[in-house]
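Appendix C reproduces, verbatim, an entry submitted by the partner laboratory led by Prof. M.T., so that reviewers can inspect both the input and the predicted structure.
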Amino acid sequence: VIITKISLPLWREDGNGNMSILMLDTKGKVWAYGYNVWGQLGLGDYTTRTVPSQIAALNGYIIVDIQQSCSNGVHVCALTSTGRIFTWGYGGGGGGTGNVSPYGNGINTANTNMHTPYLVPITNVTKILASGCWQSNGGGTVNVTRILKSDGTTWATGGNQCGQLGIGTTNNAA
Protein backbone atom coordinates (compact mmCIF):
# COMPACT_ATOMS: atom_id res chain seq x y z
CA VAL A 1 0.00 0.00 0.00
CA ILE A 2 1.38 3.41 -0.99
CA ILE A 3 0.12 6.31 1.14
CA THR A 4 -0.50 9.71 -0.49
CA LYS A 5 -1.90 11.69 2.46
CA ILE A 6 -1.85 11.44 6.25
CA SER A 7 -4.47 13.29 8.28
CA LEU A 8 -3.85 14.19 11.91
CA PRO A 9 -5.73 16.47 14.28
CA LEU A 10 -3.78 19.72 14.69
CA TRP A 11 -3.32 19.26 18.43
CA ARG A 12 -3.31 16.56 21.08
CA GLU A 13 -6.65 14.85 21.11
CA ASP A 14 -6.91 14.53 24.86
CA GLY A 15 -4.86 15.36 27.90
CA ASN A 16 -2.85 12.16 27.46
CA GLY A 17 -1.78 12.98 23.91
CA ASN A 18 -3.86 10.20 22.32
CA MET A 19 -4.17 10.63 18.55
CA SER A 20 -6.06 9.12 15.66
CA ILE A 21 -4.38 8.82 12.27
CA LEU A 22 -6.12 8.46 8.92
CA MET A 23 -4.23 7.73 5.72
CA LEU A 24 -5.29 7.88 2.08
CA ASP A 25 -3.64 5.48 -0.36
CA THR A 26 -3.07 5.74 -4.12
CA LYS A 27 -6.18 3.65 -4.85
CA GLY A 28 -8.48 6.01 -2.92
CA LYS A 29 -8.83 3.78 0.14
CA VAL A 30 -8.70 5.13 3.69
CA TRP A 31 -6.78 3.46 6.48
CA ALA A 32 -7.14 4.34 10.16
CA TYR A 33 -5.48 3.59 13.49
CA GLY A 34 -4.96 5.08 16.93
CA TYR A 35 -7.34 6.45 19.52
CA ASN A 36 -11.01 5.77 18.77
CA VAL A 37 -13.18 6.84 21.72
CA TRP A 38 -15.55 8.82 19.44
CA GLY A 39 -15.58 6.34 16.55
CA GLN A 40 -13.37 8.65 14.51
CA LEU A 41 -11.57 5.72 12.92
CA GLY A 42 -14.79 4.83 11.06
CA LEU A 43 -14.30 1.12 11.64
CA GLY A 44 -17.75 0.38 13.09
CA ASP A 45 -16.75 0.41 16.77
CA TYR A 46 -14.96 2.43 19.44
CA THR A 47 -11.91 0.17 19.78
CA THR A 48 -8.46 1.77 19.67
CA ARG A 49 -6.20 0.25 16.98
CA THR A 50 -2.41 -0.09 16.96
CA VAL A 51 -2.21 -1.26 13.33
CA PRO A 52 -3.78 0.51 10.31
CA SER A 53 -7.13 -0.97 9.19
CA GLN A 54 -8.94 -0.17 5.96
CA ILE A 55 -12.33 1.52 6.45
CA ALA A 56 -14.60 -1.09 4.88
CA ALA A 57 -17.69 1.18 4.85
CA LEU A 58 -15.98 3.27 2.14
CA ASN A 59 -15.48 0.31 -0.21
CA GLY A 60 -16.93 1.04 -3.64
CA TYR A 61 -15.85 4.70 -3.45
CA ILE A 62 -12.62 6.36 -4.47
CA ILE A 63 -11.70 8.84 -1.76
CA VAL A 64 -9.70 11.88 -2.91
CA ASP A 65 -9.41 13.82 0.36
CA ILE A 66 -9.77 13.25 4.10
CA GLN A 67 -10.00 15.86 6.86
CA GLN A 68 -10.09 15.66 10.66
CA SER A 69 -11.19 18.33 13.10
CA CYS A 70 -8.74 19.69 15.62
CA SER A 71 -11.02 20.06 18.62
CA ASN A 72 -11.32 17.97 21.77
CA GLY A 73 -13.47 15.42 19.92
CA VAL A 74 -12.52 14.39 16.41
CA HIS A 75 -14.93 14.26 13.50
CA VAL A 76 -13.83 13.24 10.03
CA CYS A 77 -14.88 14.08 6.45
CA ALA A 78 -13.97 12.15 3.32
CA LEU A 79 -14.52 13.44 -0.24
CA THR A 80 -15.22 10.96 -3.05
CA SER A 81 -14.09 11.22 -6.68
CA THR A 82 -17.76 11.74 -7.62
CA GLY A 83 -18.25 14.80 -5.39
CA ARG A 84 -19.97 13.11 -2.44
CA ILE A 85 -18.87 13.29 1.19
CA PHE A 86 -18.90 10.95 4.15
CA THR A 87 -18.71 12.14 7.77
CA TRP A 88 -18.21 10.27 11.05
CA GLY A 89 -16.73 10.47 14.54
CA TYR A 90 -17.42 12.99 17.29
CA GLY A 91 -20.98 14.20 17.06
CA GLY A 92 -21.41 17.16 19.23
CA GLY A 93 -20.81 19.64 21.87
CA GLY A 94 -19.09 18.88 25.08
CA GLY A 95 -19.60 20.63 28.33
CA GLY A 96 -23.34 20.13 27.86
CA THR A 97 -23.57 22.76 25.13
CA GLY A 98 -25.85 20.65 22.95
CA ASN A 99 -24.08 21.50 19.70
CA VAL A 100 -25.63 20.20 16.52
CA SER A 101 -23.53 17.48 14.98
CA PRO A 102 -21.20 18.24 12.08
CA TYR A 103 -22.58 15.34 10.02
CA GLY A 104 -24.82 17.34 7.69
CA ASN A 105 -27.63 14.80 7.98
CA GLY A 106 -30.31 17.39 8.81
CA ILE A 107 -30.94 15.75 12.16
CA ASN A 108 -29.94 17.25 15.48
CA THR A 109 -27.78 14.37 16.62
CA ALA A 110 -25.91 16.49 19.16
CA ASN A 111 -23.54 14.53 21.33
CA THR A 112 -24.15 11.36 19.29
CA ASN A 113 -20.96 9.81 17.96
CA MET A 114 -20.98 7.89 14.68
CA HIS A 115 -18.49 5.03 14.34
CA THR A 116 -19.41 4.27 10.71
CA PRO A 117 -19.10 6.72 7.79
CA TYR A 118 -22.38 8.45 6.88
CA LEU A 119 -23.02 9.48 3.25
CA VAL A 120 -24.19 13.10 3.40
CA PRO A 121 -27.10 13.88 1.01
CA ILE A 122 -25.25 16.57 -0.96
CA THR A 123 -23.63 16.34 -4.39
CA ASN A 124 -21.11 18.20 -6.58
CA VAL A 125 -18.68 18.83 -3.72
CA THR A 126 -15.17 19.94 -4.69
CA LYS A 127 -13.55 20.67 -1.30
CA ILE A 128 -14.15 19.81 2.33
CA LEU A 129 -12.84 21.02 5.66
CA ALA A 130 -13.44 19.52 9.08
CA SER A 131 -12.76 22.15 11.69
CA GLY A 132 -13.22 22.51 15.39
CA CYS A 133 -12.16 24.39 18.44
CA TRP A 134 -12.38 24.33 22.20
CA GLN A 135 -14.13 27.40 23.59
CA SER A 136 -11.88 28.95 26.21
CA ASN A 137 -14.91 30.36 28.04
CA GLY A 138 -15.91 26.85 29.09
CA GLY A 139 -18.52 26.60 26.34
CA GLY A 140 -17.27 23.21 25.19
CA THR A 141 -16.21 21.88 21.81
CA VAL A 142 -17.49 23.24 18.50
CA ASN A 143 -17.20 21.02 15.41
CA VAL A 144 -18.01 22.24 11.91
CA THR A 145 -18.00 20.66 8.47
CA ARG A 146 -17.42 23.12 5.61
CA ILE A 147 -18.25 22.23 2.02
CA LEU A 148 -17.42 23.94 -1.29
CA LYS A 149 -19.59 22.90 -4.23
CA SER A 150 -18.74 23.04 -7.94
CA ASP A 151 -21.16 25.95 -8.47
CA GLY A 152 -19.10 28.07 -6.05
CA THR A 153 -21.55 27.93 -3.15
CA THR A 154 -20.31 27.09 0.32
CA TRP A 155 -22.16 25.08 2.92
CA ALA A 156 -21.50 24.54 6.60
CA THR A 157 -23.03 22.45 9.34
CA GLY A 158 -22.36 22.05 13.05
CA GLY A 159 -21.99 24.31 16.07
CA ASN A 160 -22.47 28.04 15.49
CA GLN A 161 -22.19 29.72 18.90
CA CYS A 162 -20.04 32.56 17.54
CA GLY A 163 -21.54 32.78 14.04
CA GLN A 164 -18.71 30.74 12.52
CA LEU A 165 -21.03 29.09 9.99
CA GLY A 166 -21.61 32.43 8.28
CA ILE A 167 -25.38 31.98 8.01
CA GLY A 168 -26.37 35.31 9.57
CA THR A 169 -27.34 33.90 12.98
CA THR A 170 -25.76 32.04 15.88
CA ASN A 171 -28.17 29.11 15.48
CA ASN A 172 -26.55 25.70 15.06
CA ALA A 173 -27.20 23.97 11.73
CA ALA A 174 -27.79 20.28 11.04
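The chain is about 0% helix and 40% strand. Additional entries are available on request from the coordinating office.
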